[in-house]
């Protein structure tokens, strides 16, 4: 991509992220172009549809999260995992509307777009590596797994116990 095209692409992503956070994923795409300082034609050349733009913002944010997480690898494993969890929460809160829109848009799409699959794989690899290092260092419980979610119901009891241990006060 030429330098000017790259600048336009980045400006569109930034404008879209800001506008989607302000107005939701249905924000007017013409306003995205206006905020980015480009014409509608430039917007649609880079992102032919709203879904393409939402996916690009989502992938960009996941890449940023992964890049920041990889920089934590030289720290103490427990500290790195804790800082990554903070990062993950802040990104998740910042992008909850975008994430929700992506889930809705892609609910019936099979197979999932390759770029999203690659991002998810990268994130799981980073998270799994951090958790494994923290577990090996004795800084994290060994009975949890990075993939504990609604997709892995067999891990639910361990996750529930983890929440109870963190939330409930011990008496007597």
The biggest sheet amounts to: none
Q: What is the residue-averaged pLDDT? A: 85
Distance between the termini: 65 Å
Backbone CA Rg: 19 Å
Low-pLDDT ranges: none
- Percent of residues in beta strands? under 5%
Which overall shape is indicated by the principal axes computed on the Cα atoms? elongated
Q: Total strand count, please?
A: 0
How helical, in percent, are the residues?
A: over 70%
Domain count, please report it: 3
The helix/strand class is mainly alpha
- How are helices and strands ordered from N to C? HHHHHHHH
Number of helices: 8
Q: What's the short story on this structure?
A:
Helix content is 70%, strand content 0%. By secondary structure, it is mostly helical.
Question: Secondary structure elements and their pairing?
Answer:
Elements: H1 3-23, H2 29-36, H3 40-46, H4 50-70, H5 77-94, H6 96-106, H7 114-136, H8 156-167
Any overview of this molecule?
- With 172 residues, the chain is an all-alpha fold.
- The chain has 3 domains: 1-48, Homeodomain-like (Arc Repressor Mutant, subunit A); 50-140, no CATH class; 145-172, no CATH class.
- It has helices at residues 3-23, 29-36, 40-46, 50-70, 77-94, 96-106, 114-136, 156-167.
- α4 packs antiparallel against α5 (77-94) and α5 (77-94) runs antiparallel to α7 (114-136).
- The protein is elongated.
- The N and C termini lie far apart (65 Å).
- The model has no long low-confidence stretch (mean pLDDT 85).
């Amino acid at each position: 991509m030429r330098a000017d095209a790259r600048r336009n692409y980045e400006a569109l992503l930034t404008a879209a992220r800001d506008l989607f956070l302000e107005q939701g994923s249905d924000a007017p795409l013409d306003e995205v172009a206006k905020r980015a300082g480009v014409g509608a034609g430039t917007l649609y050349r880079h992102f032919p549809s709203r879904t393409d733009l939402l996916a690009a913002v989502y992938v960009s944010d996941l890449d940023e999260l992964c890049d920041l997480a990889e920089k934590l690898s030289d720290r103490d494993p427990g500290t790195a995992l804790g800082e990554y969890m903070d990062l993950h929460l802040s990104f998740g809160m910042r992008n909850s509307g975008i994430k929700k829109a992506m889930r809705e848009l892609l609910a019936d799409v099979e197979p999932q777009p390759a770029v999203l699959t690659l991002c998810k794989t990268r994130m799981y690899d980073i998270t799994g590596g951090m958790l494994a290092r923290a577990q090996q260092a004795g800084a994290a419980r060994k009975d949890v797994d990075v993939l504990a979610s609604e997709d892995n119901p067999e891990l639910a009891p361990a996750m529930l116990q983890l929440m109870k241990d963190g939330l409930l006060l011990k008496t007597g």
